[in-house]
Q: What sequence folds into this?
């Protein structure tokens, strides 16, 4: 149990569907992150939220739309995805975004498959 | 852009042997972290070593950092089948932008054979 819960664990969707991934952390952390993990590629940072405010958007296509209603919850809204978007999407949190040297705590991810 | 790169990409050893994985990076860093990922699971933080530290231990794990060579190594002693996983190094390079981003390598896939 890492303290970071992601739902659903698996998601299969068509290219025209709209779905959302959910992440919840029970650690009292103030920073949350979305990562994409594809086979044979390094982990890619997508979005960073510090105290509910988005501070990083690493050139992610607009078909991915993040939402952070509070410091404990993070969503990734998906719309009109492409086959190359099939991947494992990982959520992570860390305690204080102002402190550079901190571990991140990861959820177990959502395995997304685009048909 | 990729900052850390692990070597080897895959490693297979017998239970009880030691496993050594290496990580090289390109720019100056604040710290370097190692993570483990079991199949189908998220990443788990193992150890963090700061740029002014040269060696750190945690249980059966030993991490070294050589900032002059921009490299780090992770040693797992007396390996167990449960150590089978992928291992990633992550660096926190100076960005100058005030934000905190970890950049990960592609990982080393370790198989420990019982």
A:
């Amino acid at each position: 149990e890492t303290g970071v819960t992601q739902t659903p664990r698996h998601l299969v969707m068509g290219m025209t569907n709209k779905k959302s991934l959910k992440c919840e952390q029970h650690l009292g952390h103030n920073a949350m992150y979305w990562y994409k993990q594809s086979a044979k590629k390094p982990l890619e940072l997508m979005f960073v939220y510090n105290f509910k405010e988005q501070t990083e958007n690493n050139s992610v296509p607009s078909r991915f739309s993040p939402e952070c209603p509070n410091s404990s919850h993070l969503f990734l809204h998906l719309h009109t995805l492409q086959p190359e978007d099939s991947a494992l999407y990982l959520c992570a949190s860390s305690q204080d975004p102002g402190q550079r040297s901190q571990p991140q705590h990861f959820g177990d991810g959502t395995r997304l498959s685009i048909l | 852009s990729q900052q850390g790169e692990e070597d080897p990409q895959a490693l297979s050893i017998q239970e009880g042997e030691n496993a050594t994985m290496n990580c090289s990076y390109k720019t100056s860093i604040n710290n370097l972290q190692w993570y483990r990922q079991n199949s189908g699971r998220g990443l788990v933080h193992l150890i963090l070593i700061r740029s002014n530290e040269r060696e750190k231990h945690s249980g059966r794990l030993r991490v070294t950092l050589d900032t002059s060579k921009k490299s780090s190594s992770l040693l797992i002693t007396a390996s167990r089948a449960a150590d089978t996983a992928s291992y990633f190094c992550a660096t926190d390079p100076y960005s100058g932008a005030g934000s905190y981003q970890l950049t990960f390598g592609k990982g080393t896939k370790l198989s420990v054979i019982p």
